[in-house]
Amino acid sequence: MSGRFAFPIGDELRRTRAVAWKDISAERRSKTNFNAVVFLASLMLVMFGFALGPDAEALRSAAAGVLWLTILFSGVLAFNRSYQLELEGDSLETLLLYPGDRWPILLGKLAANLAFVLMVEVIVVPMAAVLYNVAIWHVLPPLLAVLALGTIGFVTLGTFYAAMASRVRAREVLLPLLLFPMLVPLLVASVGATTALLAGNAMGDAGSWIRVLVVFDAIFFVASMLAFEYVIEV
Amino acid sequence: MEYALRTHSFPSTVDAVAAHGVARRFAGKWALRGVTVSVKQGEVLAIKGSNGSGKSTLLRIIATALRLTRGECQVFGHDVTADAREVRPLIGLLGHSPALYQDLTVAENLRFSAQMACIPDDPSTIESAITAVGLPRVASERARNLSSGMQRRVAIARLMMRAPRLLLLDEPHNSLDDEGAELVDQLVRSTRAAGGATVIVTHDVARVVGLADRVATMDDGVLFAADSSAPLQVMRAPPRAQLHLAREGSR
Question: Kind and range of the H or E element at B89?
């Protein structure tokens, strides 16, 4: 890479911040996506509750799986919107023609999507705790860690695959088809860790699943940053 | 607004654009059929042609926004495919669309652009760019509330701030009133005065007659000199291009 045009790392991080700020500002002003995603997530929690029936024990044991599926399904809408913003004003080409590396574009969008999904979780997690009669306060710190690790992995892959799907016409359909199979290990680990925590097994199974989440996040974060330049290329 | 090109200069022997046999195919159809053309530093080349003739495709290939299928193209000696990272700091593209974020204000759009290009983004720089294109009263308006002509002016302000060494303008006078069109002409003249080059594609050649040093015509993916039917190209033209040339010759 030596001798090639490049901005210093400080400049690239400022570009990352600019992309994140731009996406968050646009969403904060329109609020179209956030309202829709929160509504969808709430609806899913209620519908899963009806499907599982009135048995309180059945609801409690399914709570972790339902919560993570709700986050995954509703979060996909955020990723699609992330690139829709660029496509609406034909801005993607202009964004890609700025000098410098392209990883700040992915990292900035990743940061904005992470903030978005975490905001959704702030509403969805307490709602799930109430609807599914699960006590979360006594395991709150480790539960937050699991939610953060699971969300980082989910958002990393989601933002990356949304970039890949952004160039095709059927991107809304293609994104879940590409993304969900890749998320199976993350879903299994996140649900496993959350179930173990809610069952009071913080040091046993939860620890193992958390290690899986850390490895998953690290691998896919690095891989996404390296591959982004190629998937976004014309 | 003070206008000075932001990138380092090149020896005068290096062409701003040097394209040889550039061809591009979309889904089996050739949009460009082996275009060969060069643009010198300080020169303004206008390319006229009807809709779908391949003008914008050529411009986007030079801008590194689109990969070529055959041939080679260099910008200030850098290959647009292999050295796209070196080319991007040198070019400024004004496309069909102003490419603004509709929920950001005019000032925020320009600040974002400055931050992405790593050029000064202080309020006074942004303000002077907005003033230069005559939009100080709408600096705090969201882009979606502006007319298409005003949005185009914001896109011109974005180019002025970057002061690229090679301007690539696609139908730059579209949607603009006389005052706005004069801003485009000013930008081209400032770039030329500073030693930069410009390629303008347009279907309204009357608009660029006083501006361009040379005018070429694009027809069905083939580039011709304006004063003759002889093509400015061809190297290893695809078969249909050869048919096209035969047709031209028989006229």
Answer: none
User: Is A32 inside a domain boundary?
Assistant: yes
Query: Residues B185-211: pLDDT tens digits?
Result: 999 999 999 899 999 998 888 888 888
Rounded-to-integer distance, Cα A16 and Cα B21, Å: 38
| pLDDT tens, position by position, A75-115 | 888 888 888 888 887 899 999 999 999 999 999 999 999 99
Bridge pairing between strands B17-26 and B29-39? antiparallel
DSSP B144-166: GGS-HHHHHHHHHHHHHHH--SE
Q: Do B85 and A5 touch (CB under 8 A)?
A: yes
Residue A161 within any structural domain of the chain = yes
ipTM greater than 0.90: no
| Rounded Cα gap, residues B38 and B41, in angstroms | 10
Give A-chain residues touching B101 at CB under 8 angstroms. Answer: 22, 26, 85, 89, 91
**Between chains, do A90 and B96 touch, taking CB under 8 Å as contact?**
yes
Domain that holds residue B228: 17-99+164-250
pTM of the model: 0.87
List CB contacts (< 8 A) between B143 and chain A.
89
Does any domain span residue B144?
no
Tens digit of pLDDT for each residue in B3-12? 667 666 777 7
Please check whether residue A4 lies inside any domain of the structure: no
pLDDT of A64 reads 94
- Nearest CA to CA, how far is A13 from chain B (Å)? 10
Does residue B118 contact residue A10 with C-beta atoms inside 8 Å? no
CATH of the domain at B80: 3.40.50.300
Chain B residue closest in CA terms to A10: B118
Domain residue limits at A213? 9-231
How high is the pLDDT of residue A230?
A: 87
Number of domains in chain A: 1
Chain A positions in Cβ-Cβ contact with residue B60 (cut-off 8 Å): 93
pLDDT recorded at residue B242:
45
Instruction: Answer yes or no: is A2 within a domain.
Output: no
Which residues of chain B are within 8 Å of residue A7 when distances are taken between CB atoms? 118
Q: Is A132 helix (H, G, I), strand (E, B) or coil?
A: coil
* Interchain contact, B95 vs A26, CB within 8 Å: no
CB atoms within 10 A of CB A144: 13
